[in-house]
Amino acid sequence: MTAAMPLSGNTPLSIDPDSDDFRSAALPADPASRVVKLEPFNHSEALSLGVELELQLVNTHDYDLAPYAEDMLRLMAQTPLPGSVVPEMTSSMIEISTDICHSAQDVITQLSPIREALIKNADKLNIAVVGGGTHAFQQWHERRIYDKPRFRELSELYGYLSKQFTIFGQHVHIGCPDADAALLMLHRMSRYIPHFIALSASSPFVQGQDTQFDSARLNSVFAFPLSGRAPFTLSWKEFEAYFERMTRTGVVRSMKDFYWDIRPKPEFGTIEIRVFDTPLTVERAAALAGYVQSLAAWFLQEQPFEPTEDDYLVYTYNRFQACRFGLDAVYVDPASGQHMPLRDHILMTMTQLEWHSEALNATQALGELRTSVEANRNDARWLREKQGKERLLAEVVRQAALRFRGAA
User: Fold this and answer.
1) Which residues, other chains included, contact 362 with Cβ-Cβ below 8 Å and sequence gap of 6+?
2) What is the reported pLDDT for 371?
3) Is pLDDT above 60 for 289?
4) What is the pLDDT of residue 27?
5) Is the pLDDT of residue 11 over 60?
6) Helix (H, G, I), strand (E, B) or coil at 127
7) What's the CA gap between 97 and 170, in Å, rounded?
8) Which of 214 and 35 is assigned the larger pLDDT?
9) d(CA 398, CA 404)
10) CATH topology for 49-405?
11) What CA–CA distances, in Å, run from 37 to 32, 33, 97, 184, 297?
12) I need a surface site. Which of 281, 305, 393, 401 has the fewest CB within 10 A?
């Protein structure tokens, strides 16, 4: 939910989660005085990448979540690393992020030493770090809100939803040439939201139960106001007007109040895709970033289609299908209305992207994803198979921790 990733200009930018006066003061009575101007869309290098991963901290006794974020952050601060490591909403989770990357290979080059430092410091604390979109059996009411002003204020606003938001996602930023291009990119990417969900799905278990969803995590996100899709605007001037109207209502005070699946990040000069579950390995996280970058290159260089408002007629249906069934979902093409297996649509798209992925040094990344799609495998399938064999979710989490280490 926070970012500290420099994606534009020569000076690192950061967002301080404490800097927002989030609902702590009474709103002005006059709606006109509530209006907040949207900050300018900063410059970034087109197709540059940034990746954020929210990760689980678990004890090594019963593999439940453990409130060790503060200790981990203290230890991680002692090692010079790319990117950043920051707290998240509850004290059993942390977020890591990269600096600016230019390829999937750059992403893994940065994430690998961060992972090694996480493992080393977790071993010192006798805990483990785990990927995955949800913890398999944690109870939300046992979670502690991390002690930061913004997190406390969110907790006061959203009540129990804040603790239920102990879910874990991957966010991918992609640099855009300018503000209008960013909105065009955002709405083109929206057709591929089901791809991102199915490829990253790793949250089949919630509070000890198999939800029958491959990605149950996104059901928690949908509980928040201003989640789902962004409004259909294709010019930054029009988006600024929308933002001003929203701030006039007093419902919105910053871009952070939008929990959209994809949102513009003007301070970075990017769009941020937020529907990915955190994968079980950083290698898959990097491969997913390579897929996003390849799609973006295709959009910029070939302008393959013009998005329309009607694309969103099937958006929620396609999103649900991918969350529920993963790679076995049905995909409805927004333009033609054709129904086809999502798996086939992903493979067809990967074939269209081959030239672009080669130019971006992402051939290996897409090849790894293609192999998993052809085998009908994602991380949700892996977790279910482990539970089918072990019949003990604590053991599944233990093996997922080994997988994050690269040992399983």
Assistant:
1) 103, 104, 290, 291, 293, 294, 356
2) 98
3) yes
4) 55
5) no
6) strand
7) 10
8) 214
9) 10
10) Creatine Kinase; Chain A, domain 2 (3.30.590)
11) 12, 11, 28, 21, 31
12) 305
